[in-house]
Amino acid sequence: VQLPASGGGLVQAGGSLRLSCAASGLTFGSYDMAWYRQAPGKQRELVAAIARGGNTNYTDSVKGRFTISRDNAKNTVYLQMNSLKPEDTAVYYCAARLGPRTYVYWGHGTQVTVSS
Q1: Chain-centre distance of CA 34, in angstroms?
Q2: Phi, psi (rounded to 5 degrees) for 30
Q3: Dihedral sign (CA 92, 105, 1, 69)
């Protein structure tokens, strides 16, 4: 299973980025997908998740600013990030799980840096 994340970069506060994760090696439509992030010196945290049925959930700090979506035809999950803040700076990772259990598949992250 490969979950390569892309779309990160350097952006000013208030700007937007769109992350993508084109999954391979799994039956994408059967998996719940998520975006996690880890900032320097902090624990990894769940940012947003989308179930195979389309239900979504978000950590409170990104509600109203980030949107997670999936395109099962393209085996891709997206994270649209608007109104970015310096505290959103982190490495963002794509993850997958089969059913309500821990996320077992992880991709290499993509760096998001938000300057003030």
Answers
A1: 5
A2: -90, -5
A3: negative
With tokens 């700007």, the residue in question is 15
Tell me the per-residue pLDDT of 47-78, one tens digit each, with 9 for 90 and over.
Answer: 999 999 999 999 999 999 999 999 999 999 99
**Burial (CB count <10 Å: 0-12, 13-18, 19+), residue 41:** exposed
Of 22, 63, 71, 28, the C-alpha closest to 46 is: 63
Class of residue 63 by CB neighbours under 10 A (exposed 0-12, middle 13-18, buried 19+):
exposed
The tokens describing 33, both together, are 């997908």
Q: What tokens appear for 90 in the block?
A: 């982190």
- Between strands 56-58 and 66-71, the pairing is unpaired
* Phi-psi label, residue 72: left if phi above 0, alpha if psi -120 to 50, beta otherwise: alpha
